[in-house]
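Technical note accompanying the year-one report. For the benefit of new consortium partners, we illustrate the data format agreed upon in the data management plan: each record pairs a sequence with a structure-token string. No post-processing was applied to the example shown here.
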Amino acid sequence: MPKIVDHERRRDEIALVACRVVAEHGFEQATIVRIARQAGYTTGMVAHYFDTKQEIVIAALRLILRRIEERLTAAAGEGDRELLALLTEALPVDATRFTECAFWAAFWGQVSADGRLKRINAWVHREYLKLFERCLARGWPEWRQWPPQVRDRVLRSVVTFINGLTASVVASPRDWPAARQVGQLRLQLEMLHAWAAGGRAAGAEMRAAKRAAAAQA
């Protein structure tokens, strides 16, 4: 009886190996031959699932995004996990996450020279915004009460901070142990929350003052 092959699982396996190869050797050195060798497959087997290295890279991007979303969703379901713990799931605080982030850093270096990768990167960025917006809405009960422009600025600040921290950790991992990453994330969230809450309160006071002045006129 022929063996049943889970083709989606095999595609994910190849994409995950590609992620490790890119993280360890860089984008240019992550050849299909090297990816196939580390995956334990022939180049012909890899070619059966992916036409080009770019296709493998795109599959790896989608796989990482799905894995991050699964981690965030699982963490959110535990109830007692606060926003800090939730967003920590997206940081390179262990070997698995570091590999994912190193892959991202290598990918970012290729985006400016490739039109298709630019489009893929834009799509990934939009998906990240949606994902982290859900996290912020779960973590801060008052999130929905803030004006849309305030929520947008806070959301983009969080995503930009995590991307910047990710790049810093990949470039200098010894300077960024997990505890320091979490500490910086905590500070960033505290400052953004204080700014959003204070800005909203200041805006409400200003609107009330304008209404009072209009009533007296």
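Partners are asked to follow this layout when depositing records. The chain has nine helices and no strands.
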